[in-house]
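#lab-general

N.A. 3:47 PM
ok so I finally got the sequence cleaned up, no stray characters, all 734 residues accounted for. can someone with queue access submit it? mine expired

B.Y. 3:52 PM
send it over

N.A. 3:53 PM
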Amino acid sequence: MPENSTEVTAAGIARLAGVGRAAVSNWRRRHADFPKPVGGTETSPSFALPEVEQWLRDQGKLAEVPLRERVWQQVAGHPAGAVPALVHTGCALLLLRTSPKTWPEIAAAPDERMADVLSLALDKALTARFGPATEDGRAVPAAEDGRAVHAAEDGRAVHAAEGGRTVHAAEGGRAVHTPSGTELLPSVPLLRAVAELAAGTGTGETFEFLLGRQLDANPRQYTLTPPGLAELMAALVEAGERPTRTVLDPAAGTGALLRAVAAPEAPAALYAQETDPDLAALTALRLALHTDPGCALAARTADTLRADAFPQLAADAVLCHPPFNERNWGHDELAYDPRWEYGFPARTESELAWVQHALAHLREGGTAVLLMPPAAASRRSGRRIRADLLRRGALRAVIALPAGAAPPYGIPLHLWVLRKPGSGTHPSPELLLVDTAEPAEPAPGGQTSATGGRDRLDWQAVHGAVLDAWRSFESPDRPAADRPGTGRAVPVIELLDDDVDLAPARHLPPPAAAGGPGELIRVRERLAETLGRTGALTPPAVTLSEPAHWPLTTVGELARAGALQLRTGGSGTGPGPVLTEHDVLGSTAPSGSLPTDGPFEEPVLVEPGDVVVPVLGGGSAARVIDAATAGAALGRNLQLLRPDPAALDPWFLAGFLRGTANNRQASSYASTATRLDARRLQLPRLPLAEQQRYGERFRALAEFEDALRLAGRLGGQLVQGMYDGLTDGTVAPK
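B.Y. 4:20 PM
back already:
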């Protein structure tokens, strides 16, 4: 095996061959010539990638490793670790983007010579994008207009910013250091492959794919801001009348928030600070590969609250997903810090320290949006700071999100929208409170957008509700700031009590009763109509007969014969809704959304007549896709069966797949979660005409089931609305 050869785990082998990890374990037991482990542990061994590839080809299990999979395995098995490999990859991609003509000459050199020459070329590319490193290793950011930086009287580097302001350079070091030739040498094979991949997919897309794989492979190592949430926060700061020219994220993480504002009309400058040096480097490279070269970037590594890297920066906007519930945030060291303009935060109120840090970095009239835990709106230890934020008009809105919007996924987090008070403006007499935690009512036809889970959020509906309420609230004539059950402009004087509790749920009526008695009347009418329809759809009396003894076949045999196709839901990227397993189980409209960054696999799109079954949980469920659902992407833990209409009726297929005995014999009970193997599901061999006769009965049963679900949802809404109306006096007892 060559020295420093890339290693791959059993999970990586399974990904290469397109099989499950159990298959790899079977190969190791059954084949004496399977490659021997070269590293790892007894429970998680690693193997040499070249040996694995050759064995898979010899066994006919692999024709050729896809280039992007090869590149990812090289990143994951890099001798220095995946993160340094990603940093080297990002630097090389930045060079490819900014100086594409220099790469062929560099890549033509032998490995050692290439590493040395590449280090010099990368230093030039990093300096051009992030500014030169000073003698002490710190970086001087380039000016937005490309002009040379100059030194201030105190020795710090400064550059001119919009409006004639002076913005000082970072106090912390540059996030991306130039790798030496020695550091680059083990990465040379990887960088050659990366350049080949980027030639077909683009530099930015290549880095997003590799970074997305790293984040997916280490979910507990990173606190992520989901794309839907990042886009909503960016839209809130961009909704103002003044252009957003400079944006700061003081807890940048993986850079999702700044990437969301780096649209085609990019800001003039993006500033990022992150405590973790690895994340800071990855974020800087991610933004550099995503933004226009005319957008200035400054990414710094330092503890934000203790060592502010941009002490003199006054930005147009601040976006922040701060760490929650930190006790060691600097309470003892920062007692007299000038940022605590609204009060010194208690040790347990680290989030209010981040709020004031954001306000300290805004220009007058600038907007900040922070993701906050719900406790920050009601804890007694923070009531004085909340009261001062209200009195001075700095806090403009508190928005409750559905549970599952961001980690921790079981908690309905809040967004705080803040505005830097100006010397010539009067504090706003009202605070906007928005609650999107629950849907207002079931949608017509029984399809409701599910909320309360990370894979079930209807981000389009959340965006619409939040942005409509915010724009109405910000409008000078304020046409309709109040949205019954969703949003309300609350007078500040009503909130300045002993608790200063800003939780939207405490000040908004529940969605079920938001429309008052009139809404309850409409719900009752819909329930009566649905109950009547349910009665009409009730199946007729059954005719009993002896058990049938049909000749049987399996889904796997039908797939091999070409009578149907099998597809599995994955993690593709792109626009459009996603059909989740919760939608299949609840017969609701597609409620998920695809990430816009990360691995760029093509999603599997459902078509009319497809049959979708969940593979986890042990219950019997199958859904036939109609025209309204067609075009949605197939979500995780779902399997799609696409029958040939000349051989199989889709409703016949879906009906027999739902048989309890059929599901039990096709399920695996070897682990804590029951898993369905769709290939083992059985069907009777019947002529197409007989299939269609059964299919009509199965279709009628599905309509009856949908009507029952809708009646249950409407009934629950009516009951709760009646309780609320009777207890608050809006409904009189009769």
